[in-house]
Specification:
single chain, 100 residues, mainly alpha, 0% strand, globular
């Protein structure tokens, strides 16, 4: 984990996120917290990660998401050399979807 982001302010934000109860509360909170473009950028990166993980090509991903190759490359670097945060979430989501 990048020590530069481990601050009291970031801890406070994460505590707030962990208190959200459902998707509607997420919409309410994140619409206040983020600009529309920031939220769309975050969701785009998450979609890019899912598509990379499923073996899609940069061209397919760019075409479907509108993400630049630079964004796709950045997400790919996180998937391959990051802290496995994407993988942790994808595995949990898959387990939840399969009823495990």
């Amino acid at each position: 984990m990048n020590k530069k982001i481990r601050t009291n302010a970031v801890d406070h934000l994460f505590d707030a996120v962990l208190n959200l109860r459902d998707k509607e509360e997420c919409y309410t909170f994140f619409e206040d917290l983020c600009t529309v473009n920031e939220l769309l950028s975050l969701s785009q990166r998450f979609e890019v990660a899912a598509m990379l993980r499923s073996g899609k090509t940069y061209l397919e991903i760019a075409d479907k998401t509108g993400a630049s190759t630079a964004t796709i490359s950045r997400v790919n670097r996180s998937l391959n050399y990051g802290n496995d945060g994407y993988e942790m979430v994808f595995v949990r989501m898959e387990k939840k979807e399969s009823g495990q």
